[in-house]
Amino acid sequence: MKAILVPVELHQLIESTLETAVLVARKFSSYVEGFASSPDLSPFLAADAMGATVIYDVDIEQDRQIVQEARQQFRRSMLAHGLNAGPLIDGGPSFGWREEKTRGELFTGSYARIFDLTVVGRPGARAGQPRMGTLEAALFESGRPILIAPPEAPKHIGRDILIAWNGSTETARTIGLALPFLKSAKRTVVLSVEGSSVPGPSLDQVVGYLELHGIDCEARSVARGTASAGANILFEAEALGCDMVIKGAFTQSRLRQMIFGGATRHIIAETRLPVFMAH
């Protein structure tokens, strides 16, 4: 986890997002890069006697000011938490800013491919909250994992980890990408919620795999009860005092989860802990 990307947008949770990124940077002596993230432009047609022209609705001066404020917010937070400006210095954590103007989720998803991890805020549906589009771009287009920062940044990260195991390809891939966190953790719990798994390796087999990597972990299986699988995962993580959840994203299709709900959708919306995800 030596290269961390943070899309910076002036939403309500930006400070907790930046603080969470700093915790990871300190843990792995990483380089953190920020850039001003903004939604895709909304085109409209302007018609006259000569035909129609596509015009994008953007206030250039306002756009420039937003980018400047995002840069200042990022730099101020990194310096306040003791990171060095510039490339890695003597192995310590550092930060930089991408000056080139960018816009839209397409850039976020493609640029994140050259980073080990992208840190995003927990998305919400209301104005002023992190955008779901940013999270989905990094999750589905980068080929790399994301870390969802909760509304309130934790004091530490990756000491006590809960893995939500459901037998899926997505979760297997996520565990592999999360090995740097797992190898440095003091405690790892592999959790299975009964009735929420797909055909795949058992809980004990996953524990055996992790032990081959020198990771001492424990298996835990819980009955689903009346709560959803996602609610069970978050409840167990908090009850066990974990400071991080590892979860494969969208074992079911996104459309199915949007219609019927699902563990990934619930965790993204409700988590109060950092969540490491990959698809």
Report on this structure.
- By secondary structure, the chain is an alpha/beta fold.
- The chain has 2 domains: 122 residues, Rossmann fold, CATH 3.40.50.620; 119 residues, Rossmann fold (3-Layer(aba) Sandwich).
- It is 37% helix and 24% strand.
- The protein is built from 10 helices and 13 strands.
- The strands form 2 sheets. The protein has an 11-stranded mixed β-sheet with strand order 5-6-2-1-7-8-13-12-9-10-11, sandwiched between helices. A two-stranded antiparallel ribbon has the order 3-4.
- Helix 7 links the parallel strand 10 and strand 11.
- Helix 1 packs across helix 2, helix 3 runs parallel beside helix 4 and helix 8 crosses helix 10.
Please provide the count of β strands: 13
Radius of gyration: 20 Å
Shape summary = globular
SSE pattern? EHEEEHEEHEHEEHHEHEHEHHE
| Alpha-beta classification | alpha/beta
What's the CATH class of the largest domain, please? Alpha Beta
User: Could you estimate the helical fraction of the residues in percent?
Assistant: 25-40%
The averaged pLDDT comes out at 88
Low-confidence stretches: 254-261
CATH homology superfamily of the largest domain: HUPs
Q: In DSSP terms, counting alpha (H) and pi (I) runs of 4 or more, how many helices?
A: 10
Question: What is the CATH architecture term of the largest domain?
Answer: 3-Layer(aba) Sandwich
Total separate domains = 2
N→C terminal distance: 18 Å
Q: What's the quick description here?
A:
The chain has ten helices and 13 strands. It has 279 residues and is an alpha/beta fold.
Describe the secondary structure blueprint for this structure.
Elements: E1 3-8, H1 14-28, E2 31-36, E3 43-48, E4 51-56, H2 60-80, E5 84-85, E6 94-97, H3 105-111, E7 117-121, H4 132-141, E8 146-149, E9 160-164, H5 169-177, H6 179-184, E10 187-193, H7 203-212, E11 217-222, H8 229-239, E12 244-248, H9 254-260, H10 263-270, E13 275-278
Parallel strand pairs: 1-2, 1-7, 2-6, 5-6, 7-8, 9-10, 9-12, 10-11, 12-13
Antiparallel strand pairs: 3-4, 8-13
Helix pairs in contact: 1-2, 3-4, 8-10
